[in-house]
Amino acid sequence: MDAKNAPAMNIDSTMLPPATAAILETVFDLFGVLDTDGRVVSVTGRIFRGMNTNPELLKGQAFSETVFWQSSEMTSKLLAKAISGAASGGNARLIVDFRVSADDKVPMEVSVQPLPGFDLVFISGQTVSERRLRAGQTREAREQLLFAAENAAIGLWFWDFAEDRIYSTASCNELFGLAAYETFRYEDFREAIHAEDREFVDHFLADSRDRGSKYEEEFRVVYSDGSMEWLSAEGRSFLDENGKPQRMTGVVRKITEQKLAAEEIAKVHEREKKAREEAVEANRAKDFFLAFVSHELRGQLNNILGWLNIARTKSVDEEKRENALAIVERSARQQKKLIDDLVDSARVASGRLRLEYYPTNLYEIVRNSWQAHLPSAQERNIQLEFSSDRESVPLFGDASRLLQVFGNLLSNALKYTPEGGRVSINIETSDESVRVQVVDTGQGIDPDQLPNVFRQFSAVAADRFNPGLGLGLSIVKILVTKHGGIVRAESEGVGKGSAFTVSLPLTETPLADDVEPTSRPVRGKPLAGMTILIVEDDPDSREVLEFFLSEKGARVRSCDSVRSALTSFGANGLPHIIISDLGMPDEDGYSFIQKVRGLPMESGGAVPAIALSAFTSEESRRKALELGFSKYCTKPFEHDQLVKDVLELLDRN
Ligand code: ADP
To answer: CA 649, CA 566: separation in Å to the nearest integer?
Structure first.
């Protein structure tokens, strides 16, 4: 049924005489009866006709919950309360907004009262004009409201489009840096708006003005002293009955602090997000790195175990056995280098890489390094050359670390050069510095990758199938830098070979004649006549050590625990030297050395002792030396070095 032509009411047909119904219709915009639960029995009125709504459809619905009272959260609750009050005998009158459309609402004075004897509630509503609404407020109340707004530092303004004048409160003017008690035009306010925000403000105000709509925006203002504040502006425009813009009202307030706080929060959030992403990335890199390291270690272990198995079978000939052992040795050495590199990197990362500087002859170091690589060059049919313009290159440095530098450069050159290629290491001195260049005819380096080769894990990131970890060159760079030098990589491109140049400053003092070459192989039986006490719980390690020291001529006494070592210590005469493990199950090497050092001289309290441990940390080295060990060696032990250490200690004593 068309709402406009609906009968004036349906109450009249059932309950009211037509004249009464007609009177109600003229007096009220809305009227009707509800049951005591607030459900519509019948509601009607001219307001529904204006809205093109058929109130018949409301029957049975909880009236306070219908769409008309959804203008604010409170409206429907207030109405529901009034209706239930009337159902239990009270009268109520309230002014609430009645929603006439999605965008529009009108204030309506609603009365609810009981209908005695009917178990019904009568509800009626009359729209109220703005004027009548405000008439309820005294002049004083209005002033108090303005005063409150001023004190809350809220600026109020009202723009009359017809007069093109803006009426504003003092605090509103002040927020725009204008004189408090003058009247301004839009252009005056606009002047104060930040140049970058002006167009945006023009735009949203024009939009609100043309559409009679609400706005809520934020922008910046700049004062004559150059300071800046953020303002928030909220308000709406009204159109007249012909749809022509009539006026605009608004509230402005300063929100600089909130804005800055929000920006700060956003920054913190951004930082936190970045940190989280970095942590995820670091974790991913760590996982990949661990997988990679374990893959490397396993690969070499696999070689070792596989070839050992072959070597053990009776059917292999001597040549094959030799070959198997050579591979086992090479794999074990690669493992050692890998672990050394890892440990060095960890030391560098924690700032604990310590170097011991002595006058050294770089010529000897480079020559030793070259010699050490000759067998692997031969094996791969690579020509490995060495040249130097002098045989004495005095330098203040850590010989073993410099050996590591050239060892890394040479093993890289051999690793990345195919069979039949050429590698050379060459020393060139000037008055104050020395240049050592390692040049190869190998695979070369992509110019894009050149700047990265000295970065940790560069190889891992660049190429997962690379046989290295990408630690070697980063360590080279750190060691060279610690010697006051620089290292440079050059390559004309992939397939065109590479050149690595290390430049180091020379010392002024010439080398003493007796400077010991860095590592001269120890031959024969240098330990003949010496008794060495070994304390080692691991039977395999013990056996290797026993075998090696006996080979070198020493008489060896072995103990598998601190307790048995202490018992047999002086039993058949004192040993000349002790070599002891540190980590042992019942009592460790630290405790052992403390007990030995607690003995009187004649009972062996001063017998020199070497700690031989798999712990590589500075901490365990320091502790061992502090508690009384004379030297600290790490496992796997370097054969020649161990003999030299033993001889040196015996010399000292
Ligand atoms: P890696 O353990 O991978 O050899 P390095 O730090 O020693 O790690 O070297 C980093 C990367 O630099 C290598 O992976 C390789 O790509 C490149 N590189 C180093 N030396 C050479 C060389 N002589 N020829 C070609 N590329 C090289």
So the answer is: 21
33 CA to centre of ligand 1 in angstroms: 92
Residue whose C-alpha is closest to residue 201's, from 168, 155, 233, 244: 233
Closest CA relative to residue 337, chosen from 412, 426, 449, 413: 412
Say how many Å lie between the CA of residue 141 and the centre of ligand 1. 85
Instruction: Kindly give, in sequence order, each residue whose CB lies less than 8 Å from that of residue 220, ignoring residues fewer than 6 positions away.
Output: 193, 194, 196, 197, 228, 229, 230, 231
Q: How far is the CA of 518 from the centre of ligand 1 (A)?
A: 26
Core vs surface per residue 398-432: b (16+ CB within 10 A) or e: bbebbbbbbbbbbbbbbbbbeeebbbbbbbbbeee
Summarised one tens digit per residue, pLDDT across range 32-67 is: 999 999 999 999 988 988 888 888 889 999 999 998
Question: What backbone torsions phi and psi does residue 449 show, to the nearest 5 degrees?
Answer: -85, -15
pLDDT tens figures, 240-295 = 888 899 999 899 999 998 888 888 889 999 999 999 988 887 787 777 777 777 77
CA distance 362 to 427: 9
User: Ligand 1: which residue has its CA nearest to atom 8?
Assistant: 470
At residue 32, the 3 state secondary structure works out as strand
In the chain the first and final C-alpha atoms are separated, in Å, by 121
Q: Sketch out the chain's domains with CATH numbers.
A: 3-128 (3.30.450.20), 133-254 (3.30.450.20), 260-350 (1.10.287.130), 358-505 (3.30.565.10), 531-652 (3.40.50.2300)
pTM over 0.90: no
Q: Which two tokens stand for residue 327?
A: 């591979």
Distance from C-alpha of 98 to C-alpha of 117, rounded to nearest angstrom: 30
Quickly list DSSP for 479-508: HHHHTT-EEEEEESSTTS-EEEEEEEEPPS
